[in-house]
Specification:
CATH superfamily of the largest domain in chain B: YVTN repeat-like/Quinoprotein amine dehydrogenase
Strand order of the largest sheet of chain A: 15-16-17-18-30
Radius of gyration of chain A: 27 Å
Largest sheet of chain B: 4 strands, antiparallel
Number of strands of chain A: 30
Number of helices of chain B: 9
Strand content of chain B: 25-35%
Helix content of chain A: 10-25%
Structural class of chain A: alpha+beta
Radius of gyration of chain B: 36 Å
Low-confidence stretches of chain B: 1-29
Number of domains of chain B: 3
Strand order of the largest sheet of chain B: 4-31-30-29
Protein name (chain B): Wd-repeat protein bing4
Oligomer: heterodimer
CATH class of one domain in chain A: Mainly Beta
Organism (chain B): Holotrichia oblita
CATH topology of one domain in chain A: Methylamine Dehydrogenase, Chain H
Mean pLDDT of chain A: 89
Distance between the termini of chain A: 96 Å
Number of strands of chain B: 31
Protein name (chain A): U3 small nucleolar rna u3 snorna associated protein
Organism (chain A): Holotrichia oblita
CATH architecture of one domain in chain A: 7 Propeller
């Protein structure tokens, strides 16, 4: 007779001393782990709930400005340094880590329209409504020294925006005309003009550093090549573009933040006496353009945007890409910040606080972790880019657990319960109401269009995809 | 865009020479220094074409054939850890999603392989009993087995003589470490049966019908004469559940935290012990319920009835999920094995059948025994124990292949009342009229436990930790279905469902139109006119609805119309009318 029964030696299963780790023998036999799918589902549900519980994106607010913040610039070499300018001509330099203002000085008389660092971070350039372009040192002035610009250029024209070349000594300003400057010269090295309309924003492409894009007040976006003598291309949209931002990873992609119809209403009242045709045009535009969207363009194919990002309920005032080029943040006149994934039509998150007013500028920090927002009520706010992310170092087990729950959330993302919890966001009442109003309007136009289609000859009222609705023409 | 030069050589002639050839080359100059010539193309915007043309790195052949790399894994082993075949990729239309899905499948294959490889790390081997020539395993008595195993294992065979309060029913905890005894005449005892350490012992002064551990060894439920009581491991009464009255059998569903009970009057109830609320309670309308077991694979309750029927129940429907006619005479016992593969049923006509619980078609095995078994139990390694009067017989491999002789047999002096295999041990615990006996059954239990699932060597802090974890992962009772993986599958309506949905449309009431007439100016349209308009709108909507319904009916009926058409004859008119 040969016999053996299970007989375990407790020493092999119990820890030797109290300071040891517990011994955890594993057996991955699926029979010992029943309800695999159901348990995973419950874990995914818990993970997605916890994500919402820990979603506390607001980090801090930097206050000190005495007027609304007009623009913000990130230091390209130092993560913690931030410079901001306000409508009263004051510039402030902030230390984000310590959350305090390092420096403040009156740089211009009147509004500061643009601010930018030069690529090595040693200087920054501001420009204001007083038609001056001033260059400042990043370093603090010595004790007893005055805040003096190293260089002041007096422009002949009104200037409204600035952008520095990522790899050279040139920078571009916009205003009545687009001008290209060199740091050492007091005259523009080149000027570009297309039509008579003024430009209100300009951006250098961070990768293809010779390419420039500017937003004009005739609702167009103009592309320039600094090696060329004239502008290359122009897209005319139905709505005015407020700001644009280049994708730092895909050099041929940029996203524009667009104006709403309030502006057009203003136009109508101006135009009424003379141009009935114009009004008709505008009214038809109005029917289509009740959305406050961002448009992602591919410069190789400007005929219509590759993607339309909707969710804002009022004009989008600023947009900035994350350094990974996968997401971008937008600030709006509706007092919210929204974060979009590049290839999605709707935002993945919305940030708002009771006290935050109209957004004037938003920036995504270069460590891909924070979002900075400047708004009308004189504050600069710091937000987490991922609302429920834990700040600070993660222990290996913590990271493993987070990765696991991330994978589960993705696996069960389409379950109705999980999707509902993941998508739910509380928004202020005015946004909620505006959203429902916009929805009604949208339904109305859709219904009207379908009625029109039903009662007219086949093909007379074609189906136009959303992407093609917003671009009027492309010019070369 | 201008051409960029990355590498510039001093020698102009060299440059021209290579430009003609147009290929990257290493050129040796007279000075014997290397100059790399790289053909530079203008940068293209967007994805670089070259990226897709990068050749795959060739595998370097194994320099030492003595060590051929990773050991191959047998197909059976891979099958054991496999979660089924992958999905059919032909339905995926876009290339990117095809690639994504392919990557997912590769990941799953990789995990399966890893899990199979890890099996080599399992430390314990399962037990066995082998007879020499001329011997049979049946002839070995418990004493002989206990004498020939090691001392530690021999202590697992013991006998408790409790003459006064029997007959006893016994239950093990999920990790197999603790034992709960309930004597019919009121004696309840809980103890760690390995160390023989008594937790508590009490007399409830009432009849005890069944006992059941809850999720941890500090709490257990006892079905007493009228109601179910919950005690802790010191014997303190925690709860008296008056809504569960005259309970005959209890089962605990550990992953759902449900205490399922079957009552004298035919009521089935599920009590969520984490929140203390009854999830569902209803009458099965099948009379007194005496046989109850759970299917650990899908948490469905199986009831055995006197008509030879086994019915399966979930808390979500009031009708049984399935009903199987297992025997032609009244059933005496049933049990589902811990893996949820086999179900053993026994009836008074001395028959015993093994079923595949997932299929619910014909029995896998059908046996006729010498006497009718009153108790059956299946172990983790699919050993089958039968209780017949005062004899316990254990069969090996009886589920897949027909067996004739028992593996082990043990005869008591007194009738047995209940038995259970102890999880993760080679032990069968038998409750008898006069106490409790623990029998050694080599090869019954799973030798390697998973400490995160059930750990016999759990300490107090580990237990607390596990309790919190398992509470967080409590599965909702809604998810109890026959197929527990359905939550991870795509819900595609079958053709039958679609047809059903269409048919249902016929019986839908026309929707109510809530028409709010617009307020025109003063004096335009009185209330009568408004009412008239309202009526018109409602009528229109109703007409349209009826028309839609008609269309559907025509669609469904049109086929039948075609069938009836026959070539008409002129003389048909003289045929008698139907």
């Amino acid at each position: 007779m040969k016999v053996k029964v299970i007989s375990r030696n407790p020493d092999e299963y119990l820890r030797d001393t109290k300071k040891d780790l517990y011994k955890v023998p594993r057996n991955f036999d699926p029979d010992l782990h029943p309800f695999e799918a159901a348990r995973e589902y419950v874990r995914a549900l818990n993970a997605v709930k916890l994500e919402r519980v820990f979603a506390k994106p607001f980090v801090t607010s930097l206050d000190g400005h005495r007027d609304a913040v007009s623009c913000i610039a990130k230091n390209p070499t130092e993560l913690s340094i931030l410079v901001s300018a306000s409508y009263d001509g004051e510039v402030r330099v902030w230390d984000l880590a310590q959350r305090k203002c390092l420096r403040d000085f009156a740089a211009h008389e009147g509004v500061i329209r643009g601010i930018t660092y030069i690529p090595d971070g040693s200087r920054f350039i501001t420009l204001g409504d007083d038609k001056t372009i001033k260059t400042w040192k990043t370093q603090m002035p010595q004790f007893g020294e005055d805040e003096e610009p190293i260089n002041t250029i007096l422009s002949k024209t009104v200037i409204g925006g600035i952008s520095h070349n990522n790899r050279g000594v040139t920078f571009a300003t916009c205003g009545e005309i687009c001008q290209l400057w060199e740091q050492t010269r007091n005259e523009p090295i080149r000027t570009y003009q297309w039509g008579v309309d003024s430009l209100h924003d300009i951006r250098f492409n961070p990768v293809e550093y010779n390419i420039l894009a500017a937003c004009a007040s005739d609702r167009s976006i103009i592309l320039y090549d600094t090696r060329d003598s004239g502008p290359i291309r122009k897209v005319v949209m139905k709505m005015r573009t407020n700001r644009l931002s280049w994708n730092p990873m895909e050099a041929f992609v940029f996203t524009s933040a667009n104006e709403d119809y309030n502006n057009l209403v203003f136009l109508i009242t101006n135009y009424i006496p003379c141009y009935t045709k114009v009004i008709e045009d505008i009214v038809t535009t109005l029917h289509n353009a009740f959305v406050f969207s961002l448009y992602t363009f591919d410069t190789r194919h400007l005929k219509h945007p590759t993607n339309v990002h909707m969710d804002h309920v009022s004009a989008v005032t600023d947009v900035d890409y994350s350094p990974t080029g996968k997401e971008f943040v937008s600030g709006s006149y509706d007092r919210t910040i929204r974060i979009f994934e590049c290839d999605k039509g709707h935002s993945r998150d919305v940030y708002h606080t009771k006290r935050m007013q109209r957004l004037t500028s938003v920036k995504w920090t270069l460590d891909n972790k924070y979002i900075l927002s400047g708004s009308d009520e004189m504050n600069i706010r710091v937000w987490k880019a991922r609302a429920s992310e834990k700040l600070g170092p993660l222990k290996p087990r913590e990271r493993l657990a987070l990765n696991y729950s991330e994978a589960l959330k993705e696996k069960y993302a389409h379950h109705p319960q999980i999707r509902r919890i993941k998508r739910h966001r509380h928004v202020p009442r005015h946004i909620y109401n505006a959203q429902s109003e916009l929805r009604t309007i949208k339904e109305k136009t859709k219904r009207k269009e379908s009625n029109r289609r039903a009662h007219s000859r086949k093909g007379d009222v074609p189906y136009v995809p959303e992407r093609k609705k917003h671009v009027l023409s492309e010019m070369e | 865009m201008g051409k960029k030069r990355y590498f510039v050589s001093d020698d102009k002639k060299e440059k021209e020479g290579t430009a003609k050839k147009g290929k990257n080359k290493v050129i040796k100059t007279k000075k014997k220094d290397l100059i790399y010539k790289v053909e530079v193309r203008p940068n293209v915007w967007g994805r670089r074409r070259e990226d897709s043309k990068v050749k795959k790195v060739k595998r370097i052949p194994n320099p030492n054939p003595k060590y051929p790399g990773k050991a191959p894994i047998s197909k059976e082993l891979l099958e054991k850890y496999s979660r089924g075949d992958g999905i059919n990729k032909s339905g995926i239309k876009t290339g990117i999603h095809k690639k994504k899905q392919a990557q997912k499948e590769r990941n799953i294959d990789f995990t399966t392989e890893q899990a199979a490889r890890v099996e080599i790390l399992l430390t314990e081997d399962s037990g066995y009993l082998e007879a020499d020539d001329g011997e049979t395993t049946t002839q070995f008595t418990q004493k002989q087995i206990a004498d020939s195993v090691d001392i530690a294992a021999a202590t697992k065979s013991f006998d408790l003589k409790l003459m006064d309060f029997g007959p006893y029913c016994a239950k093990y905890t999920r990790n197999g470490r603790h034992l709960l005894l309930g004597g019919k005449k009121g004696h309840v005892a809980a103890f760690d049966w390995l160390t023989k350490n008594l937790h508590c012992e009490l007399n409830v002064m009432e009849s005890v019908h069944d006992v059941c551990w809850l999720h941890i060894e500090t709490m257990f439920a006892v079905a007493q004469k009228e109601w179910v009581y919950i005690y802790d491991n010191q014997g303190i009464e925690l709860h008296c559940l008056k809504r569960l009255n005259r309970v005959t059998k209890m089962e605990f569903l550990p992953y759902h935290f449900l205490l399922a009970t079957a009552s004298d009057q035919g009521y089935l109830s599920w009590l969520d012990i984490s929140i203390g609320e009854i999830v569902t309670q209803y009458n099965t309308k099948l009379g007194r319920l005496t046989m109850l077991t759970q299917n650990p694979y899908n948490a469905v309750l199986c009831l055995g009835h006197a008509k030879g029927v086994v019915s399966m129940w979930s808390p979500n429907t009031r009708d049984p999920l399935a009903k199987i006619l297992c025997h032609k005479s009244s059933m005496t016992a049933l049990h589902v094995d811990p893996k949820g593969l086999y179900m053993a049923t026994a009836a008074t006509d001395r028959s015993l059948k093994i079923w595949d619980v997932r299929k619910l078609t014909g029995p896998l095995q059908s046996y006729t025994l010498r006497s009718a078994p009153t108790h059956v139990a299946l172990s983790q390694k699919s050993l089958l124990a039968l209780g017949m009067g005062n004899v316990v017989e254990i069969y090996r491999d009886s589920c897949i292949t027909p067996t004739r002789t028992p593996y082990l047999r043990h005869r008591f002096n007194i009738p047995i009342n209940s038995f259970n295999f102890c999880p993760y041990e080679d032990v069968l615990g038998v409750g008898t009229e006069w106490g409790f006996t623990s029998l050694l059954v080599p090869g019954a239990g799973e030798p390697n436990f998973d400490a995160l699932e059930a750990n016999p060597y759990q300490t107090k802090s580990q237990r607390q930790e596990a309790e919190v974890k398992s509470l967080l992962e409590k599965i909702q009772p809604d998810l109890i279905t026959l197929d527990p993986t359905s939550i991870a599958e795509i819900d595609i309506p079958t053709l039958k469902d679609k047809v059903e949905a269409k048919r249902k449309l016929l019986f839908v009431k026309p929707p109510k139109i809530n028409y709010e007439p617009r307020r025109k100016g003063k004096g335009k349209g009185g209330s009568a006119k408004i009412f008239k308009n309202k009526k018109i709108v409602q009528e229109l909507a109703k007409k349209e609805f009826v028309k839609n319904v008609k269309d559907i009916t025509l669609e469904t009926k049109s086929k039948k119309v075609v069938k009836n058409k026959k070539p008409k004859n002129v003389l048909d008119r003289f045929l008698p009318k139907k």
